[in-house]
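*** Backbone structure tokens ***
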Amino acid sequence: MGLPERLRKEWFLLGIVLAIAAAKLQPAVGAKGGPLKPEITITYIAVSAIFFNSGLSLKTEELTSALMHVKLHLFVQIFTLVFFPTAIWLFLQLLSITPINEWLLKGLQTVGCMPPPVSSAVILTKAVGGNEAAAIFNSAFGSFLLGSSSSVPFTSIFSQLFMTVVVPLIIGQIVRRYIKDWLERKKPPFGAISSCVLLMIIYTTFCDTFANPNIDLDKFSLIIVVFIIFFVQLSFMFVTFLSSTRKNSGFTPADTVAIIFCSTHKSLTLGIPMLKIVFAGYEHLSLISVPLLIYHPAQILLGSLLVPTIKSWMISRQKALKLTRQPKAPVKV
């Protein structure tokens, strides 16, 4: 395979590298308040586009089926809201005897208590080809459930989720009814569109990270926190993978993809306001915020890098399951 063909095949990974490099060079361009206005273009327009895209691409019966997949929803929500924070608390008991700053450790604990994000888990699930409908439900439901039970204003959470998730999804479904034949005939590249939106999110996320004055640690502490966060993410992705692929789990390979991303991702959009309310007046608020500020870009970067590997596994697993379900030809005597 020549270099041009290789680059064409790996365009998404190349795009990640270029997006991060561009963010490092001029972080102010894509940071909040910058020329790109990501607080509007990403938070509202890009997220709405993601779910409009999902509404167009998903069959209504797929959404209905995902809504009724109670076992999957219970797995994701229990893992996110019970197992994740409990496991982090136990892990931090070990880290408490190390010289790592105690406020950074408190920040890691708060990361474990955060709800899933609305957009990144859905985009990554779609990029792999997993159960997108289930990812949509669990991302939105998790954010709504934890957000409404916290100190963050309920009306603000509900209105944002409704306008950026529910409304675009419904509009996409309505439009799909009128152009269904055209969609099935032309097969638009919905996955590639979502991947391009994800590159925009990666770019603006890293612009925010590089431009953020709160991430002002000594190099040792910063490296340790980054290492811990990647270790936690990879470990929990592996745990969710093993749990959802065990024999008689009742989950399809596409379900496993949604479970991996929805169970391990954490929301920065809801997380930062929650931290500012819960730790209002704390002089160490900036240190407490650092793990979440690092976790957010790390989860997008790690998930994006793993998309080809997870997709390859899912396709091979689906083919293997299809072969095992085919009836065996009768043996001729």
